[in-house]
Specification:
- The protein has 14 helices and 19 strands.
- The chain has helices spanning about 15-20, 30-40, 50-65, 140-155, 180-185, 245-260, 270-280, 285-295, 300-305, 310-315, 350-360, 385-400, 415-420, 450-470; strands spanning about 75-80, 80-90, 100-105, 125, 130, 165-170, 195-200, 205, 210-220, 225-230, 235, 320-325, 330-335, 335-345, 370, 405-410, 425-430, 435, 445-450.
- Helix 8 packs across helix 9.
């Protein structure tokens, strides 16, 4: 799941080389990268009728053709989920002391119905400098960059000091699916061992003219916890209504959930984000960002930031109703009514603590709040490590002069939740960027501009090589 950073009052424009690429003047290695991107997008990897295993095999074939040995490629799946497989590739480094880095990417995509889209979601369409297709932004552009980087390293006969690992997984987009990152963390921890991992979750924001205003690195994220809210009743004939109605009781409880505001919280990441994002801004929101970074108890600053949906979510745990059901017959009083409550827990919060707060807010013991599997532990954000952040800032200065890098906490969730707890701190990379209209990720007509695709590819290659040279 992709979440772009908030806009800052600074900027840079893309070089002419990227504009030329967008017009089709591609070198052989650029043409190959585009072919990798196309192959990934056009391989259906949605849960209902797609196959991550097929996509992993295609990427493995490309790596093998570039010179990777069979021993350096590990395919994995489980019998009960044969189409949810993935691949781990390893490019061995020369240093015996430097720990590896891990490039992480998920191959699966959110469901896309052809009837709802303007174009076939599983055909890569390029129109007017924009690529359309499911996965173009979330996250097959990064997947393609990771594969492309390893191929370029191998073809150049480059031996990194650090070992560079790549894990392409499945199951990130669907809670009930087999999750490859979780499986690797539990069953193949040594295979993916790394000092840190690079993942989705960061990125940049451009204005309507394509001027890049910000880049961000994701340092931590919320975790998802689902609850089933349910009310029950003996029911009866609808011709004799009663106020003690399961649907009415559920509706009353839902309104209380809607009105409940979880308390404001700050982490090192969000404090740094607001301080950096507010720097140089003179509007009310900019002043509020600076104020909240200095004093989380500043209620006026909080009220100002709460006007922005994204900032509001960055400042607290949130819970929202997402599904609804109730009743069993049109001429009978309901015996049962229920709703799904989707919570995004701020780092440090627990399922038990969030459940207790919701129950106090609802204030009705007849309303059951049932935690749904999987039960999530509290999020543990990685550190703001200069060994990770510093090289990002250096590479950013080369590719996006004058654009600051802001650490940010994702209000969504990614596979980082499985790696950080087992000792592999995971960071969402900058590089790609989106415009004010968004990318359509998880929605209709998902897209990425050609300028972003080429700029991001070059940035990530340079970034990985910078880390790889640090042996």
């Amino acid at each position: 799941m992709k979440v772009w950073g908030a806009a800052l009052a600074a900027g840079a424009t893309l070089g002419l080389s990227h504009a030329a690429m967008a017009q089709g003047a591609l070198s052989p290695d650029q043409a190959r990268f585009r072919a990798i991107y196309k192959e990934l997008v056009e391989t259906n990897t949605q849960l209902s009728n797609g196959s991550c295993t097929e996509a992993a095999a295609k990427m493995g074939a490309r790596l093998k053709a570039a010179g990777f040995a069979d021993a350096d490629l590990t395919y994995y799946s489980v019998p009960e989920h044969p189409k949810d497989g993935g691949i781990v590739a390893i490019l061995k480094g020369s240093s015996k002391t430097a720990r590896p880095i891990l490039l992480l990417g998920h191959l699966d995509v959110v469901e896309a119905k052809r009837a709802d889209w303007v174009r076939d979601p599983f055909v890569l369409n390029e129109e007017d400098g924009v690529f359309y297709g499911r996965g173009t932004s979330d996250m097959k552009a990064i997947d393609a960059a990771w594969v492309d980087t390893l191929i370029r390293f191998k073809e150049a006969k480059y031996t990194p000091k650090r070992t560079v690992k790549l894990a392409l997984t499945c199951g990130e987009e669907t809670l009930e699916a087999f999750n490859g990152a979780s499986w690797l963390a539990k069953n193949k921890r040594d295979l993916i061992d790394a000092e840190f991992a690079l993942n989705e979750g960061g990125g940049g924001r451009a204005d309507k003219d394509g001027k890049v205003l910000t880049q961000s690195v994701q340092v931590g994220e919320k975790v998802v916890q689902q609850f089933r809210m349910e009310t029950t009743n003996a029911g009866g004939h609808s011709s004799v209504p009663i106020k003690d109605n399961a649907i009415y009781e559920l509706a009353d409880a839902l309104i209380k959930v809607r009105e409940y505001e979880f308390p404001l919280q700050m982490s090192d990441t969000t404090r740094a984000f607001f301080a950096k994002a507010g720097a140089g801004r003179t509007d009310a929101q900019g002043r509020a960002m600076i104020a909240i970074s200095q004093n989380p108890n500043d209620k006026a600053a909080e009220a100002e930031l709460n006007k922005d949906r994204g900032f509001h979510s960055m400042l607290r745990t949130t819970c929202v109703a997402t599904l609804l059901d109730g009743g069993h017959a049109e001429n009978a009083l309901p015996q049962r009514a229920g709703a799904n409550i989707n919570c995004r827990m701020f780092p440090g919060d627990t399922m038990e603590g969030v459940k207790a707060q919701l129950e106090r807010a609802i204030g009705d013991p007849k309303v059951k709040l049932i935690p749904l599997q999987p039960i999530r532990g509290k999020a543990t954000p990685p550190p703001l490590d200069p060994k990770v952040i510093g090289p990002m800032e250096q590479v950013l200065a080369r590719h996006y002069p004058g654009v600051p890098l802001a650490p940010t906490m994702s209000t969504g969730a990614s596979d980082a939740i499985y790696l950080t707890p087992v000792g592999i701190p995971t960071y969402g990379v900058p590089g790609y960027f989106g415009g004010p209209e968004g990318s359509g990720a998880h929605g209709l007509n998902e897209h990425m501009s050609a300028k972003s695709l080429w700029a991001g590819r070059d940035f990530l290659y340079d970034l990985v090589k910078t880390y790889a040279d640090e042996g």
